[in-house]
Structures
1.
Amino acid sequence: MSVISSPPSTEPASAGSLFDVIATGVRCLAGLGLVALVILVSAEIVSRFFFAYSLRVVEELAGYIVVGLTLFGASLAVRKNSLFQVGFLFDALPHGVKRLLDLVYLMLSLAVCGVLIWYALQLVESSYTRGNVAPTFLMTPLWIPQLLIPLGLTFIAVFIVERMIVTLRQGGAE
């Protein structure tokens, strides 16, 4: 009798369904952002090539979308535990040391993330209070795209917490 084994899962270890729902939402937002980016850039290319006319808003909107994609992508990389690792050094350590270093790294990362979220929210509040707008054709109120920064950092923090939970649950596992 032969046993067919399935390939190892590429899904990250989950700390629960709440984290899975948040990850699905982040993936959907990132996907929509990527589709919007492709459509905007394609429309600009077609407009310039065939009509010798620039849409004038694509560069600004594309910049905002790229910031969001970068932060959302980083949060998903944190969830998959595929960000900031030197594997050949880390893998050589005993399990207990790896777990301790993981937890220290995650706690420091969460603290840094918290500080960045705090300052990003202050930036958003300042732009909102002052009524700052982008010096561009759209004159976008700056607090709107600036919200992407604390939002993306919050997703990163959520997935850092998930990694901590998963690491603590795997305590004695080798």
2.
Amino acid sequence: MADVYEQGRGQRTQRLRIFAWACAGALMLLPLVAMQFTDEVKWDGADFAFFGALLAGVGGTYELLARKTRSAAYRAAVGVALAGTFLLVWLNAAVGIIGSEDNDANLMFGGVLAVGVIGAILARFHPAGMARDLFAMALAQVVVALIALIGGAGAGAPNWPGGLLVLTGFFAALWLASALLFRRAAREQKPTNAAA
């Protein structure tokens, strides 16, 4: 009976993987389709290469980390963290969060991602350590916004400082949601370790 359950679960997982990669492919086509209907979207080969590399990096990282565990909370936490990473990089490259995409102050968000990468390595991707790492990323996100506000880095932009505040809240909420999911995965793991 357990073999039938595992086989069914494996087939569902395979279908989800195929669906996720198909969605990534569809995302790659969106700008190409948009370019046929509007002059607002003007991508060249470098733009498509960057977008494709970003999608492949996020998707590949999810595949590697999701295989580490069967915990749905851990997988969801990884998914939320990687979605936030994807959006942060893409927004910064496309339009910028602090002022425009040409504003060097946007490079500070690389520090938020560095906190995430270094923290994940130090935590060895264990859920309790990952929870602390994502809490640190939320704090780093807020610190970057405070530095930009105090320094007036995006002053003069049409949506300043409202856009920065909204996006800071959005990304901090993503990091916190991921941290809480990692914390939940760590709690699920404790009874198993105690029994061993």
3.
Amino acid sequence: MQKISPFLWFDNQAEEAVRFYTSVFRNSKIGKMTRYGEAGPGPAGSVMVAEFELEGLHFTALNGGPMFKFTEAISMSVDCKDQAEVDYFWSRLSEGGQPSQCGWLKDKFGLSWQVIPEALPRLLGDPDAARAGRVMQAMLQMTKIDVAKLEAAYAG
């Protein structure tokens, strides 16, 4: 059992979001969906709470109404092994959403994601400050992370 898990508050798109996220991540599954009854407060038959799993991480989604919105203060980080994975996740998660800077994007539900290749923390963490600085400067110019450009900046 997972001790801590993300709980995502949606206005009324929890079921759509769960279906979308489980279509993006290959190792995923939809769990129990609890629906509102006649007593509400949501429309009868609509999802109240949905459980789902992405890459072994358990999530809960709630249709709680429009009172709260996602902000960039919380984001989901997707670790990618290479540029092909970056390209895949960036393309899928940004569908209908909004790209941002340095590998960040908001999906069509307003949830923020970081799509990060394994090369980025390795290159940024290099003990050679000049190399790491060039990588940082290159990254600051990017929306989607481009591993080849990071490596070129690293090499000088």
4.
Amino acid sequence: MDASARLSAWLKDHPQNISKVVDIDTDTDRLLKLELTSANKELSIDILDNTDRFCAWVNQKLADNNCRYGIGGYMELRTIYDNRTQFDTTGEERRNLHLGVDIWGDAGTPVYAPLAGTIHSFQDNDNFGDYGPTIILTHNLGGLTLYSLYGHLSRANLVGLTVGQQIESGQQIANLGEVHENGNWAPHLHFQLMLDMEGKAGDYFGACRKSEKDKYLQNIPDPSILLQFPDGLVI
């Protein structure tokens, strides 16, 4: 049974334990699917290599479609990482298969814990193209340990945190960070789930090599299982 199936089995029996990750009004909000693969011909090298132009592209797509948020990315093969050095493996296969879900929105947008848990770790991954401020939570789901990662946050969100701190389901834990503090990205949340942190703290790969997909499917559940957006919400 892969990671997604194990998580899905628990969530099916415990729907009352699940809360939101961002504020969604299911009557008025729609989530725009943003594709960041080579198949998206709108994304020229000129846009991908320039943070300001990429931000403008994201904002224009959301405005044109009257959407507060964009979403996408789980197991998506991304060209956007080609100019980000931390995804380069020095002549070997690049890490460009995205392991989380991105939720694009305005800087300052509140971020919530979808499950009760504790703070596993946190740190500012302050490199160009990295997560920036990052929080990782631990959740005990009836004997199944799940970790949730929140990347590209505001630096202010790390102040006063302690490892082991209790977090309630639905509690606000962060905000989307500005470009200058979030790893130099258009404001968004990188939301990722792991069954095993593999000894890491404050960080975990957000992308892997395409050849490693089967391996990571055993450890990285599909976040949409937990996000549980209603049919028709994603356009």
